[in-house]
Queue: 2 jobs
Job 1
Amino acid sequence: MRDVAERAGVSIATVSFLLNDTKPVTAATRARIEQAMTELGYRRNAVARALASRRTHIIAMAYPAMEHRFGMSTAEFFTGAAEAARKEAYHLVLWPVGNDGVELRELLGQGLVDGVVLMEVQLDDPRIDVLEQTGTPFALIGRTTDLEGLSHVDIDFDTTVQEAVEYIHQLGHRELVLVSGDLADPRFDGYGPWVRTENAYRRIAAEYGLRVVVMPCGDTTHAGREVAERLVAEHPETTAILVLNEYAALGIVSGLRHLGHAVPEEFSVLALLMVPETAALSDPEMTFLRTPGPELGHLGAEALIRRLENADPLPPQLIPADLRPGASVTTPRPNRKPRRT
Amino acid sequence: MRDVAERAGVSIATVSFLLNDTKPVTAATRARIEQAMTELGYRRNAVARALASRRTHIIAMAYPAMEHRFGMSTAEFFTGAAEAARKEAYHLVLWPVGNDGVELRELLGQGLVDGVVLMEVQLDDPRIDVLEQTGTPFALIGRTTDLEGLSHVDIDFDTTVQEAVEYIHQLGHRELVLVSGDLADPRFDGYGPWVRTENAYRRIAAEYGLRVVVMPCGDTTHAGREVAERLVAEHPETTAILVLNEYAALGIVSGLRHLGHAVPEEFSVLALLMVPETAALSDPEMTFLRTPGPELGHLGAEALIRRLENADPLPPQLIPADLRPGASVTTPRPNRKPRRT
DNA sequence: CTGAAAGCGCTTACAG
DNA sequence: CTGAAAGCGCTTACAG
């Protein structure tokens, strides 16, 4: 920078003003500086800038690697956020830290990042206390129970479930089961998506006059297969199954087939939150609601960066998953009698 | 740091020496400094340290987001590297940059990272020129053709293919097809894994006296389904299919089933590089060779960090994928005549 | 074993 | 519109 200033015959302050567009510079000096910069191949040093300006232009995504698997959806959130950050000239680091906030506090102390995007938010999340205590700007992908003043974006679970139930109901299904998450698993204690989906379903199913059956299920294909067995045994009147976890959804389909039940002829299966790549893996191809992963990753980074730049805050956004018809849902089988009450 | 030094009655230099373990410090002063640090809740500022020491302790993983999808395997590489980095007190940023090296050069100019881990390496990779020209330390996950002096780790394709062919051959299969990558796709021009797998297969199959049939295929389930159709039509004598891409492998299985062919009774299908989560999605569960993703991610970061710390270099490592028997491979069907020559 | 001081390469009041 | 200078919070020769 000193070299550039010298060559252009100005002070380094002026070069800095031009670079940051922080004070007006005459067209003439601008031209001289710019020429000097290209001649010298100058690039501004990000570390020195960070130290002087107290802004590193690095943001972190905190991910609970121990508690949650890093699956396709997570990858979408992350790469979506990384691309949004890059567009705004920020860098995104991945912090695999525990849900208790201890490691997070440790890392924040280093002063390396300007802010944090929090993923896999719990209804009452210790990491948020850490962020608030340390005065770190942050944005949530997900929601806590108490959202006062928090920047957040999330899936619109109400609309998503509403859309799913409506679609299934309008096809004529009246005996549904929701295969939800297993909230008894300590790794998912108070895990927002599971709680919210289940609550939304209970309310909406009741509105449609449907009997509410909810089965908990782990987040793996194997867990899905097991639940398929129990479901057929315990709720044989079922004609349509809504599945929250994408891996479980595939397990349900293959579990049913192994039990000799045709999908969708005997059981329609609808995945509530899935990525297209996973849906394509299913046979028959899954009818699903597409997780807005790239969009939420983008918005989460965007919300944080707006806050960092003191721009107009991004209003909280709830994005519904949208329906992608496949071949795993059809009209209910006619050949079985409705359940007697 | 000044506060700590003051409180402990020493100079800031001494605090720094202790912190970095760069010069010996008496037990007494050490104790005083450490007490002062805990009392003040001191944490060393990473940015100032980076500027003064010219080492940021940040490494980047360059990922060609435009050319390659960020799938399960990629996620494993990345999270594996992130965890290894964290253990060594480094941070990992994701740089979604193009394969041509232009964006990479731009980012390197900022001086934010100490080095780069390169993923999805091409046999002749322009990004390596950029790294060398800028004098940036780097490590490869993958290999170029010319490897002179480059730190790298990669899948051991030779051993992997060897193991696969041996397993299939010993079960009695004599009519194999390799479903490889589509090197005509410009996004995968000179893409190492595809080239190496295909070369290894041609050599090894010949050693076993097998006729060599290789079919190119895209990296999606749909592409796999289409290839299944062509395969049955063009090579009906086939009894075993080796598939390179994990998504294509699932497509082949479901494609065969749709054509009315049983897996594994009529066609055995073996996935050459797959993650367990994907294998579990298949029906029947896939017999596969497990991509050493977490391990390679770890080793890639490790190799780079060793180089950065001037430690003994990590010798180049080739890790084979190991066989995980599932239910998609069995002995060849007896009911069809061997191909007449 | 410890300290005084220069310097890393920028930004930013402050002054003109 | 431009500049001189302090300072961001550390590390690291150099000296003792």
Job 2
Amino acid sequence: MVTARNTRADVVAAAGRLFAKRGYHGTSMRDLGRELGLLGSSLYAHVDSKQDLLVEVVEDGARLFQESARSALTVPGSALHRLGALVTGHVDVVLSHQDVVRTYLNEARMLDDDHRARVIAARDSYEQAFREVIAQGIGDGSFRADVDPKMSSIFILSVLNALERWYRPAGELDRDALAERIAKFVEAGLT
Amino acid sequence: MVTARNTRADVVAAAGRLFAKRGYHGTSMRDLGRELGLLGSSLYAHVDSKQDLLVEVVEDGARLFQESARSALTVPGSALHRLGALVTGHVDVVLSHQDVVRTYLNEARMLDDDHRARVIAARDSYEQAFREVIAQGIGDGSFRADVDPKMSSIFILSVLNALERWYRPAGELDRDALAERIAKFVEAGLT
DNA sequence: CCCATGCGAACGAACGTTCGTTTGTGTTAT
DNA sequence: ATAACACAAACGAACGTTCGTTCGCATGGG
């Protein structure tokens, strides 16, 4: 198969790129076609609707974070270890799938009510992982007793999600160093 | 004046509301007219273009933060005091002008190149205030010597800007308590 | 009387989407 | 080996709608 025709996955990937850059409503099907070197109408050989593309990209983003959390929660040892794994996992997801994550974070609200509700539920369940680990850390004494797991989770996720806004791959900081800096900063607020 | 006709400021305020909720490209001039109880075409008695509305809302947002920083930097005493003033001021701006801030943070990238460049410059100058205060704190020994003013500013602004995403006015936490919680959290990462 | 305000029709362009057709490629039958 | 077929991918025109914007006209308060 020497020929390089486009597959559905190519279309979804291009949609992630453009939705991240210009937003869902700022991207037309003809824009998307141009990105792939074909006409807007040709996209309908791969996809039922523009909305479907948004659903697919956003749900991909939700799944990435979901799986990262599931894996981090199995890390043995102290709650501090697991919190570090959550942070590192989050950084990995953001840096490895910047376009998908941008779309997930910024364009999910453009979804219809049903899909948006599902995404919000997934987001809440992800935040719950942070809350649990922080509660564990309070329980075993590694975090201060007056820490509020709910508010702390929000603060930590604020720092992590903002990565998408300022991180540029050309940055001098490599992935591990960045994750470590963030982990150090947020853990300072808990200990 | 029994009659309640609309002024230019009303149109800009409504634009801030809708741009915040649905995004710039997700808001039509007819949507905006409906919000004010008139036809989309009638808006052109107050405004030259839709783009002008975005410019005005976003520049309002930039100005609010600019002024908050200018005032916070004049606070006498320790760098810690001034950092606290920066945090409190930021929280105040976000909570008092949630729609304008949302539009400022999320829709500025929809501006044309010239205006966007000006907004980015304003944002950089605002971040610079945080960097300076942190550098002062390192200088006078109130912050750890290994703190990186640049990275720390990014982290702090991440927490502050994320407020717009999760804060709901019905929350149990009042404004001062919220600012204090945030200040405590971010200062822990510096001391 | 003026002038700001709003109406309502209209403009051309762009939108998401549909449709019949063409193109190229891999598979099957001869 | 070649001819016939099947099928996915892309084209290009066209659809009805919505977009931002313009324009001429009505109206009512200072």
